[in-house]
Amino acid sequence: MDGSVPRLNSEVFSPYSHLLRFIETCFSLAICTQFSSVRIGMVRVYGLLLFLLVLVLVSFGEARPHDEQPLSRIAVHKVQFALNPSAYVKATPTLLGLEGENIQWVTLVYGSPNPSNDDWIGVFSPANFSASICPPENERGFPPLLCTAPIKYQYANYSNSNYKDTGNATLKLQLINQRADFSFALFSGGLSNPKLMAVSNIVTFVNPKAPVYPRLAQGKTWNEMTVTWTSGYGISEAEPFVEWGPLGENQMRSPAGTLTFNRNSMCGAPARTVGWRDPGFIHTSFLKDLWPNSMYTYKQGHKLFNGTYIWGQKYNFRASPYPGQDSLQRVVIFGDMGKAESDGSNEYNDFQPGSLNTTYQLIQDLKNIDIVLHIGDICYANGYLSQWDQFTSQIEPIASTVPYMIGRSVFLLAYITCQDVLLIFSYCLPW
Ligand SMILES: *[C@@H]1O[C@H](CO)[C@@H](O)[C@H](O)[C@H]1NC(C)=O
Ligand SMILES: *[C@@H]1O[C@H](CO)[C@@H](O)[C@H](O)[C@H]1NC(C)=O
Ligand SMILES: *[C@@H]1O[C@H](CO)[C@@H](O)[C@H](O)[C@H]1NC(C)=O
Ligand SMILES: *[C@@H]1O[C@H](CO)[C@@H](O)[C@H](O)[C@H]1NC(C)=O
Ligand SMILES: *[C@@H]1O[C@H](CO)[C@@H](O)[C@H](O)[C@H]1NC(C)=O
């Protein structure tokens, strides 16, 4: 990526720009704990009807220690192969997203001849996680047997507490479309001394490369909205665009730019090593000259060079009011939300189950929200890149409908550069 990614929207000129600056001031003084009704120009902003403004003291106030990303508990470099012919893992269904879904549940059935409460299931994607795909830079004198962390994991006894007696169990896991196929592996020896006992069949989405998880951001001018999304289609394969227009009227098309980043642009381990996962392609399109207050529809498209179109789902948003127009704008501001898995996986030390409550609450109340400011410490991916897709999937219902403005944070920058955040969200508030 060599530092050439433009700062797409480092300034917002819209009814929100004063608010953003006000918050920035509060944030830098770290004295602002709550405010309920701020009169800014002609636009009355009733912030925080839903949430108290959670302003972290600038340092690491609320942030958890770095090693608490659940995936970091797994000693990936210590994995030993102990394949056991009578251990097994079976996953069904094998083909996901038959009706266009990007999220689906799978059921695992597994068993072991020497069951223990330490046994766990790791979800790998791509499914082929054999040592032969290790890049040379990951070697430490000897090649590790496993060179990638799972994208999530769960204890084998999670749904059947008597697993250690019966030796078999079932488990339901939720998968999201993340541009690659999946496999499930049964390990013994706990997280700190993992021994691979069995690997499942492969499970895949019908179109793993499908355009997914659109996130909106208020553009550089009040009447512009940006749409950013992720797909598996690079520009050598297809032309990305957004088909959009006023609700119920003729739709037009706007081109999108395509960016990505590679392993070498990561600052260090684990992002560069076991936490690395191909981020796919991130596309951004600029929808301009919006009419104030109007409803719009949009969907992401990719035109393959043989003429075939690949479509995303259809979404709606409401355009910003005219600056100064007397209007009620409802702004939700929070920080440090984190992410969690609704199937209960990765819940080492209760990592961030509350983030699901926050997300669900926002979705329930979406019709009463005009813009969301997520002021930093986004998903605590901490160098495990799979977590970014999971986060953009978690917030999809919100971010695809109202502008979702991201602020970077000190914590985040230690693992991934703000340029990479900019890339994933096309917007990074300047604090
Ligand atoms: C896994 O990937 C390696 C390296 O790309 C390849 O040699 C091997 O055949 C693959 N295995 C399967 C089962 O696809
Ligand atoms: C399941 O295994 C975990 C990890 O070893 C353990 O903490 C938990 O107590 C076990 N649950 C039951 C019901 O035995
Ligand atoms: C475990 O295996 C036994 C015998 O095959 C079977 O009856 C039982 O339903 C299985 N339990 C689970 C949780 O799969
Ligand atoms: C174009 O290519 C895609 C992907 O390779 C394929 O699925 C599709 O059938 C092709 N369409 C035509 C018209 O050949
Ligand atoms: C958060 O969500 C979980 C799961 O839906 C629920 O059990 C819990 O009560 C919720 N917590 C709060 C504080 O609402």
UniProtKB/TrEMBL annotation:
The keyword Secreted applies. The chain crosses the membrane at residues 45-63. It is found in: Secreted. SUPFAM superfamilies: Metallo-dependent phosphatases, Purple acid phosphatase, N-terminal domain. GO terms for cellular component: extracellular region. The lineage of its organism: Eukaryota, Viridiplantae, Streptophyta, Embryophyta, Tracheophyta. It holds the Pfam family fn3_PAP. Residues 89-207 form the Purple acid phosphatase Fn3-like domain. One of its GO terms (molecular function) is acid phosphatase activity. Keywords: Membrane, Secreted, Signal, Transmembrane, Transmembrane helix. It comes from the Eukaryota. Residues 213-318 form the Purple acid phosphatase N-terminal domain. This is Purple acid phosphatase.
